[in-house]
Write a structure and sequence with these properties.
Elements: H1 8-16, E1 18-22, H2 36-39, H3 44-47, H4 61-70, E2 75-81, H5 108-119, E3 122-128, H6 136-139, H7 141-157, E4 164-168, H8 180-190, E5 195-199, E6 215-219, E7 236-241, H9 259-271, E8 275-280, H10 290-312, E9 313-320, E10 325-329, E11 334-340, E12 358-363, E13 369-374, E14 383-386, E15 389-394, E16 405-412
Parallel strand pairs: 1-2, 1-8, 2-3, 3-4, 4-5, 6-7, 7-8
Antiparallel strand pairs: 9-10, 9-12, 10-11, 11-16, 12-15, 13-16, 14-15
Helix pairs in contact: 4-5, 7-8, 9-10
Bound molecules: alpha-D-glucopyranose.
Alpha-D-glucopyranose binds next to loops.
Amino acid sequence: MSIPVAKQYILDFEQMGLGMFIHWGLYSQLGRGEWVFNLEHYNMDEYKKLADTFTAEDFDAEKIVRTAKEAGFKYITFTTRHHEGFSLYDTCGLSDFDAVHTPAGRDLIREFVDACNKYGLMPMFYHTTLDWYNKDFNEKFDEYLEYLRKSVEILCKNYGKIGGLWFDGNWSKPDSDWKVDELYATIRKYQPEAMIINNTGLSDRGKIGNPEIDSVTFEQGIPTPMNREGMSKYVSAEMCHTLNEHWGIGYDDLCYKSPTELIKSLCDCRKVGANYLLNIGPEAQGKINNYQKELLGLLGRWMELFGEAIYNGRPCGVNGIGKNFALKSVDGENLYFFVYDLATRGDGNVTVGRKYRGVYAFGGVSEEITSIKWMDNNEELPFVQGQDMLAVNLTGHPYGTSYPVRVAKATIK
Ligand code: GLC
């Protein structure tokens, strides 16, 4: 059995490696996550009043896109409409429950797309398929599906080229006919090269559904290698994570991840060729709080040093001790060795201890290597090569630096 040849737009998506997820909607004003309507049993007549106080006065799309770009993100997946049913885009008369009918009075998705285009990031649209606002969802499902299809048509027609659609909610009615063929055909008509992704949820991570699907999802998961042998089409993989424990802002959610965790998760993803889609939750009127910005800033510092390996590296079956592994560059000229938990050099009594340094082996290296250097300071690493095996002296961090994962770049003869 063979592995199917990937379409170019799917490869391009894979090579972006790191995406920013943004969850923002009316719920952000309550600051208790995006499921607050459902979990706190709100009445929709009450809940929808949040539209009257939605000004979006702090939403600065260019600023967000610049923050993303500086941190090394290549694409942004933005909630154009979440389960609450409120659209951040101009629904062109389909519904009054959208941003242009609030005090904001703006098409926020237009601003987002314009900013992405200005700074060269790929805009992607998250769109809910389940809907708490539209009564047809429960009462006249077929009419609801037509509303959904028309909504998506607007997004595909009115914003120029987009990177893809990221659907979420089919898991809410697993036994219904969602008529996805019609929905996906609408996308293909206007955006033949858009990634079509449909979140399979927490219980079905990595599952492939309809043949139009271009990438599987690993919501809040640990990415596992994809076995593509015998598949009818090459699909990519993407893992999405929250920055704390909610997608929409939780003002009292203090469980933020550390930069160490973010960097390691990103590397874990790339080890199996998956993208890392990392979420932020803007505040009520669109501001990103300092803590989230700072976290992204530290991730960005790491990406500045090692980003090349993230974008350019593909799985090649090389593994080392612990979680260590290597990726091969797309052009086949380099290997990138990812080293987790490297210790700092010097007197162990004064260096705060992390695991190890010294000579360690990597298995599965069949290429002849001419040199290996740490990517951050270009220090040459001594190595010896045997059959399918490479032993490298992982010399340790210079005192004053410490990276959760440090990457060495090798040149292939
Ligand atoms: C879940 C949640 C949703 C969130 C999504 C992101 O399916 O329902 O709130 O947007 O995951 O992956």
